[in-house]
């Protein structure tokens, strides 16, 4: 088991915001953390990244797992959309945590950056300026950078929020392909109901745990059905 969470609670300033979570993530899993805005998804993501400590319970990581083996992609912001850098430079920077004090990237790190450009279908963009790209292209570039950092785990927090639904659907399928073909463990938080289609397991939150289990069981559950009805109503 890569991650095992037992009776887990997080919060701020002594106030618990998400509580009593019990779930696990095995190597090769694709876990969707689902729920509406304000349900505690981003708080849990911060806890899994060890940016905040649990107020109750415990997170147990596999003994051979190191935090530097994690790649992370957060929500898009205006600042991220205006990076004054080239695509290749940004993707390669995902290796910064491994480079240490070395002045140059290794041949293996450069090769991994090129492989991730190909995997994301953006090799033809490698010489372009990041801020000149479309929103969907920018997300692919940042995802390629995160994959350079990831060795065992890729964590995403609302990674495709604000994109056209068709572009988001394409990127969700791409994540499923990456998980399937590379065996990369993925944890993704999203309030987009369509994201469930690419995950193997779902943890649904609303300040507490409403569901944890396989995606097919989730889609048949009352929690899953209500969530998808609410998403469709919001889209009307």
What does this 3D model show about the protein?
By secondary structure, the protein is an alpha/beta fold. It has a domain at 67-151: Rossmann fold (3-Layer(aba) Sandwich). 37% of the residues lie in helices and 25% in strands. The chain contains 9 helices and 9 strands. Helix 5 (107-119) runs antiparallel to helix 6 (135-149). The protein is globular and about 45 Å long.
Globally, the shape reads globular
Tally of helical runs: 9
Low-confidence stretches: none
Mean pLDDT: 90
**Spatial strand sequence of the major β-sheet:** 5-6-7-3-8-9
Radius of gyration (Å): 18 Å
What keywords describe this structure?
236 residues, alpha/beta, Rossmann fold, six-stranded mixed beta sheet, three-stranded antiparallel beta sheet, 9 helices, 9 strands
What's this model, at a glance?
With 236 residues, this protein is an alpha/beta fold. It has helices at residues 41-48, 78-81, 87-92, 96-99, 107-119, 135-149, 165-182, 215-220, 222-235, and strands at 3-12, 15-25, 30-34, 56-61, 70-73, 153-157, 185-190, 201-205, 209-214.
Topology at a glance:
Layout: E1 3-12, E2 15-25, E3 30-34, H1 41-48, E4 56-61, E5 70-73, H2 78-81, H3 87-92, H4 96-99, H5 107-119, H6 135-149, E6 153-157, H7 165-182, E7 185-190, E8 201-205, E9 209-214, H8 215-220, H9 222-235
Parallel strand pairs: 3-7, 3-8, 5-6, 6-7
Antiparallel strand pairs: 1-2, 1-4, 8-9
Helix pairs in contact: 5-6
